[in-house]
Amino acid sequence: MRFLHLGDIVGKPPRELIRKKIQAARVELGLEFVTANAENSAAGSGINLAIYKELIDSGIDCLTMGDHTFKRKEAITVLETQPRIVRPANYPTEAPGKGVVIFDIGMGARCAVINLLGRVFMQPVDCPFHAVDRILRQLPKEVKVILVDFHAEATSDKQIMGRYLDGRVTAVLGTHTHVTTADEQIYPGGTAFQCDVGMCGAMKSIIGRKIEYVTETTITARPTTYDVSDEEVELHGTIVDFNPLTGRATAIERWVG
User: Fold this and answer.
1) Which residues, 6 or more positions from 226, have their beta carbon under 8 angstroms from its beta carbon?
2) Strands 145-151 and 8-9, how do they pair?
3) pLDDT tens digits for 115-155?
């Protein structure tokens, strides 16, 4: 069996491409399920109910979030009412939403999707290592397939998490930096790992935003609006093959659509 995890969806242009491509990709690639990071899906920051429904209807089974989870107050309704979205599990327990979602993937197998937020160069949050340990202890024993979206800045942070969870989860796949890394691998314990699966957005951009605005603010300190770019849009993600009986990964590869 295999799944695809899509990198950060930046605004409307990649959402339109997802609508056109993902259902066909599921068949062509033989995917049991598709997940995606959606924390930038609403005009480059946050999510709302309409976009949640649009992405689920387009063929995505579960959405993960990150440090922009609560950039829009509409996200609270989504997180409190919708079943296929997770926010970082190391947010305070009082935060709306949940840090893990479990769903059926066929052949009697079930998958857990866990979302975590890194701490290096990021906003202050609880320890992601302690948070994931708590979740893994509470998961039903029959849930063998476990995907961790680690939304973090530092590659060292991500590598530590990958090694820490080796043999305990199916995959630790990084998001947040929007740039695909070339370190995809299967660790000795059977956990697939990659520092960052990339971005769904405009390749002619600065991590999905219009080049001229980001450049102006960086060089002059004048505030601008970081509008989403729509030039040369691609979908970037990672495919993981796995054994549904053991939850161990057997192959990993980058994907561009």
Assistant:
1) 44, 209, 210, 213, 214, 217
2) unpaired
3) 999 999 998 999 999 999 999 999 999 999 999 999 999 99
* Reported confidence tier of residue 225, pLDDT bands at 50, 70, 90: confident
CA distance 213 to 193: 34
How many Å apart are CA 104 and CA 205, to the nearest integer? 37
Task: Work out the pLDDT band at 107, boundaries 50, 70, 90.
Answer: confident
Give me the amino acid identity at 14. P
CA terminus-to-terminus distance, the chain: 20
Write down the residue that tokens 């530092």 correspond to: 154
**What are 205's two structure tokens?**
């951009």
**Angle CA 235–25–143, to nearest 5:** 95
User: Which residue's entry shows tokens 């998958």?
Assistant: 111
Angle at 124 between CA 119 and CA 128, to 5 degrees: 45
**Annotated catalytic sites, by residue?**
68
Q: Which positions ≥6 away from 72 have C-beta within 8 Å?
A: 42, 45, 46, 47, 48
Which conformational region is residue 181 in: left (phi greater than 0), alpha (psi within -120 to 50 degrees), or beta?
beta
- Give the DSSP per-residue string, 7-35: -EE-SHHHHHHHHHHHHHHHHHHT-SEEE
Helix axes 128-138, 155-165, angle to 10 degrees: 30
Cβ-count burial 231-242 (b if 16+ within 10 Å, e if not): eebebbbbbbeb
Question: Which pLDDT does position 85 carry in this prediction?
Answer: 98
SS3 135: helix
